[in-house]
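anyone seen this seq b4? input:
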Amino acid sequence: MEIPIKYDPKSVEKKIYHYWMKGNHFSSYPDDRIPYTIIMPPPNVTGVLHIGHILNNTIQDVLIRYARMRGYNTCWIPGTDHASIATEAKVVHKLKKRGLSKISLGREKFLYYVMKWSKSHQNIIFDQIKKLGCSCDWNRTQFTMSSKLSQSVTKVFIDLYNQGYIYRGYHVINWDPEAKTTLSDEEVIYKEHIGKLYYLKYKIKGEENYVTVATTRPETIFGDTAICFHPNDVRYSHLIGQYARIPIINRYIPIIQDSYVDPNFGTGCLKITPAHDRNDKNIADRHDLDVIDIFNEDATLNEKGLHYEGMDRLKVREKIIEELNKLKVLKNIEKYNHKVGFSERTLSLVEQRLSIQWFLKMKKMSISAIKAVKNGDIRFYPKKFGKTYFKWMKEIRDWNISRQLWWGHRIPAYYYGKKINDFVVAENLEKALEKARSKSKNPYLNYNEMWQDPDVLDTWFSSWLLPLSVFDGIHHPHNHEICYYYPTEEIVTGSDILFFWIARMIISGFLFKNQKPFKRVYFTGIVRDDKNHKISKSLNNSPNPINLIHQYGADAVRMGLMLKSSAGKDFHFEEKICLQGRNFSNKIWNAFRLIKSWKILRNNQNVPDYSLLAIKWFENRFYYVLETFEKFFKEYKLDESLMILYKFIWSDFCSYFLEIIKPIYGNKCVPEIVYLNTINFFENILKLLHPYMPFISEEIWNLIKKRSRQETLMSSYWPEKKNYDYDILVSFERATEIISKIRNIRNQNHISHKKSLILFSMRKKEEKYDSIILKLANLDKIIPVLKKPESVSFFSFFLDTDQFFLSLNHEKYSKNYRDDIVKIENQIQYFYNLLSVIRKNLCNNKYVTSVTKSLLLKEKKKENDTLNKIKKLKEYLDFLKK
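predicted toks r here
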């Protein structure tokens, strides 16, 4: 078979992936092997994947391919997430362009469009994952809105409600005015914001005096129900029991005391707006205050805002300040740096708002999840994220799980009356009716009098069940697959979803199966752009991964990302890392072509000594690298294990081993023993390379020799560790240092690498690898001496305490000297001319005084460098003329 001169990743990758799929090599079924299971963090069906997803999936594929070659029964489950808020927002926006609205379409028709969008984008996402080379079990593809997973979600909701963990109640929640839905605390991103602190005067009832409050939100005065100060703040003790008048609306509110208030903030007096601040609501509950909601769903003011009704809250802020100033109750305005919350999905400014929602009690169910990480039953890589995890878990609040959306798992609650508790929780309307008749004691209640809660569950409420639900472990907790595959091995994820997903999955694992869901969590760093922004779909700042794969090849992209990625550390993506990966692919391909170009000498007579030495050294070197590689790999230092392999292939295999054993120029024959050992070494290298660069390694594996369809590299066995002789490695390293020194002398002194030299060696004993030094350094011979030779010109260098002297073989190359002498003389003249120009400038007083100090220093350095070059060239010229 003729091997192409250039490696073409585009054609190879398509062919190889088809070959894997056709052979069903990714599939997994329970058997007598040890399972190794990974669940893919399901990307949102909101668009194509970005470079962060590519990194995440590459890491998972590296782990799964390594485990497969180690003999585990690997099961990597791919999937996508329905992403309620983001997907609904995308579809609403798309329909708006067509003149359609969610409301005019109705729920059923709207969900048809969303499902169509989801299926389309799921196909795009899976196609990208396949192009990357991911060895997922595509027979087990999951979607968080599939009927199987939806049934699990419904059952969990009902069970938790029946156990008292889920409840419905009024709370101040986070509200996204763009998506018009609630958000959990974890879906709010807080950013530093330089705003303003407004000082407003509230007139004290029955007096001409005022009490001044400080607020960042003057537009919320319509919802004020009290003014509050700290009980120990003596400045305001005379106001106890009094009332103050709210400007504009002229409603009186009580002045109260509460220890929550910080006396050092503003004036020490706070206005209390319970419907729009969680802390204010807590104060209101303690003091039995009124609660007044002043906002509509889109964050415009409602009728409570009087003449500002229908106006956006930020516009109201502008206008109300003008009005308060006219009323002379605006005392002053200060700049104020504080944190402001934004929606993680729509990036809109989040509003706190009193609302009736569904909540999940988290405190009690978190205890086992805290213990599991604390005692090392679940390990984090890197460990530092354990502190963040414990901090969040200890401060955990009830989880707001309802969302005012249509796309998602609909809440299985059914209402039959106007009272707050006139509802039942059931898996369908039929069972709900039965429960409602019993609860209401109305046997005549019918279907027409009942309606299902229009809200859906938070997306993460389905995702937190994945390790269980993908194996049907909710409905059938003791089925064969859940017992075999659970717990899974690793979760590979970004640290930004530690609370959204990781912590909640750990909680659900112990809650529903009394067992951890996975053994280890590998946190990738955040991939950032050149402006240090996180690469994400919402910012649209990711290079197109498919374009990168088309340009450089999937292996090159994978390798470039893996070399830069270290557990838990952010890094900036640069396209040149893909170029490094492509260059490495080409290096491997060219090494393969070189080996396959050799002819085999069937008799093993006259095998060069240097080839036998190289084989012995490389075998020991391989097992040393294997040990180091696996040490880093098991510590999740995947970048370091790859770098070890990269240097091993590029330097040890290509630059040394192949150079040592390759036939002398003009000859293409190698002894059979050398060739077979080389093929064996190359196959082992391909095994180590395969998890990182699966396509090129599989392609070469199949081209090396004819194999059966089942003899894939991905299914081959990982090399077993063997003992190695470290002294051999040290001796060879010394030989490479000698070779490197000689090559540097050649380069620095413009000595052709084709010229044969003589090496005089002042050392105690002959080097073991002299035959290799002779070949790679192109030496005529190595002569041991007791002292510095005087009869020849030479260059000298030290290695530890030993000294070496390098000399030309005059007899063999004297006919080439004349040409070299002319070249050197011309170079010397060139540098003398350059020196003249430099010195002319430095002697010119006008030039010296007009240029900057740094430029002057550069000129002086240039003068010194030129003098050194002339000196070395003259020494070499003298060396040639002797």
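The radius of gyration is 37 Å. Residues 810-816 have pLDDT under 50 and may be disordered. kinda curious what u guys think
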